[in-house]
Amino acid sequence: MAARAFDLTGKVAIVTGGNGGIGLGMAHGLADAGASIAIAARDPTKSQAAVDDLARRGARTMAIETDVTDPASVARMVAATLEGFGRIDVLVNNAGMSIRKPAHELALAEWHTVIDTNLTSALICAQAVYPAMKRAGGGKIISIGSMTSIFGAGFAPAYAASKGGIVQLTKSLACSWAADNIQANAVLPGWIDTALTQRGRAQVPQLNENVLRRTPAQRWGTIDDMAGIAVFLASSASDFVTGAAIPVDGGFSAMG
């Protein structure tokens, strides 16, 4: 019974920004559990590499060139997924970016870029998949927050604001759509070794040392550390879990 609860055979997942980093790690987990995967991202070359990677794991997969900040592009993403796979059961709102500047140096246009990419896009994508999930009798929305959903970030105020907003949006979606059997949850990754955080280590002095000192697990996470939580939140094992914000951080947020 327990094993079947985590089985995603026959399910279809859209992973935005799923062609690398945390999104690809989650796609690995979903694919290994039996789901078909639509990778929605802007870079077609990188997306094809992700599709090839997932195909080697035995997954049915496709790439859809998508700008998650553009409702028309997101509508095409949904239509292509339905045409290719016939249904949508899981949405992973993972696409994101950061501009690392202190608040007094951040231009308003830069603020809007980060908020639109990280937060507004999650609403656009959730609204776009909602009709298909409702028709199917339910669904799962997994949105990627951050440790900055909990803590401030003086070096990235727009990013922190967007990720705090992800948690509140998640709670609101959970309340709005519970009657449709749609569960919405947020994952709050700790310091995961990705291209984004590698740039952060280059830009923020002592970041690597500070992360290792603060993290009880005494290491950076890997993208495949995100696979298990993706499977749990995408599967029937989490049918009574909604509106939650779950850290996956090696204990980082548990430290005082």
Question: What would your notes on this structure say?
Answer:
The chain is 46% helix and 15% strand. The chain has nine helices and seven strands; from the N terminus they run H-E-H-E-H-E-H-E-H-E-H-E-H-H-H-E. The chain has helices at residues 2-5, 21-32, 44-56, 71-85, 108-136, 157-177, 195-203, 207-214, 227-234, and strands at residues 12-16, 36-41, 61-65, 90-93, 139-144, 182-189, 245-248. It has a seven-stranded parallel sheet with strand order 3-2-1-4-5-6-7, with helices on both faces. Helix 6 (157-177) links the parallel strand 5 (139-144) and strand 6. The longest helix has 29 residues, at 108-136. The chain is globular and about 50 Å long. The mean pLDDT is 95.
Structure summarized in a few sentences:
46% of the residues lie in helices and 15% in strands. With 256 residues, it is α/β, with parallel strands linked by helices.
